[in-house]
TrEMBL record:
Organism of provenance: Acinetobacter indicus
The name this protein goes by in its record: Uncharacterized protein
Length: 90
């Protein structure tokens, strides 16, 4: 009998999306950065594409076009860059 992985990574994706799009005090963002970055780096390929789709839905129209034009590695780098910017923002 075959076993399928039914883990949808909902909690990990939710934590990453909350870090990116929800307002939190800067001290909380700085505290949450490293755990969220670790979650992001450990996502499986399918979960990463699901995250990209969810991020795409949240973006304004022009940002969607730019995000859609990036390849897989470009999207990864862009998300990490945005996460770092959020953490460092004063």
């Amino acid at each position: 009998m075959y076993s399928y992985n039914t883990d949808t990574h909902d909690q990990q994706l939710d934590a990453i999306l909350r870090f990116l799009f929800e307002y939190q005090p800067q001290s909380e963002k700085q505290f949450a950065y490293q755990p969220v970055k670790t979650l992001f780096e450990q996502l499986e390929l399918s979960a990463m594409y699901q995250l990209f789709a969810l991020i795409h839905e949240q973006l304004p129209r022009k940002a969607r076009l730019l995000f859609a034009a990036e390849d897989y590695r470009g999207k990864q780098a862009l998300v990490l860059e945005v996460m770092q910017h959020i953490r460092e923002r004063v």
